[in-house]
Amino acid sequence: LIDLSGVLKETLNACQYALISNTGRLFRDGSPVCEGGRFGNPGCMASGVILGLSQAFEHAGLSLSEISGPIHVTAVGGASVAHREQEGMIRSGRRLGAQHPHVPEIEWALPAIQVGTFVPVISYAQDRGLLITVAGVLKNPVAEAAKRETRALDVSEVVGTSKIISQLSTEHKNGITSFTVTVALDNLTFPTDNAVKIIQSLVPDPKR
Asked: Tens digit of pLDDT for each residue in 24-57?
């Protein structure tokens, strides 16, 4: 089991990307977790983008293929998303855009998606939790039936759980339909829970 939350993105080609979907199978291809492989446990920011974007679009009855051009990600996290030796109040991440290791992870899991900008922000007043926005442009206007009422998301809704909550909002202006997906998750609990699911899939259930 390989931890992909740090700087090990070069191992993506050497392991099976093991983000577990709601079906209990691997996100990328829907296959089960099987013995005999090397599994990469996903990073927290990447998981939020991948699952949050996918869930929000699915809930609205839209396909990710509707996205035109690159997506733009801003991820605001608590102190636990930063290296332990770093401190401050509110600061931007050191690695932006393609320099950030979560960018190739997102593009690996979502081959049709290109990340245009990736901006991590750390708020040291909060110990944990991630609030992510993913913005971009759609190829076509969104039908009224696909539009959903949005609300303010707060990480307090997910801290201490493995839930990922997300929502999609769209706006059509000057002939362009833009979208924003907002995602909240616990950056500590979610990756841990995902790793546990991988292990449980590999270890036989003694009750069977």
From this structure: 888 877 777 776 577 888 889 999 999 999 999 9
Q: How many helices (H) and strands (E) does the chain have?
A: 3, 9
pTM, rounded to two decimals: 0.87
Query: Residue 114's closest CA among 91, 133, 139, 97?
Result: 97
Both tokens assigned to 158: 């997910």
Could you tell me the two tokens for 199? 């292990």
Which residues lie below 8 Å from residue 111, measured CB to CB, with a gap of 6+? none
Runs of H (alpha helix) within 97-178: 102-109
Alpha-carbon dihedral sign for residues 6, 124, 88, 106: positive
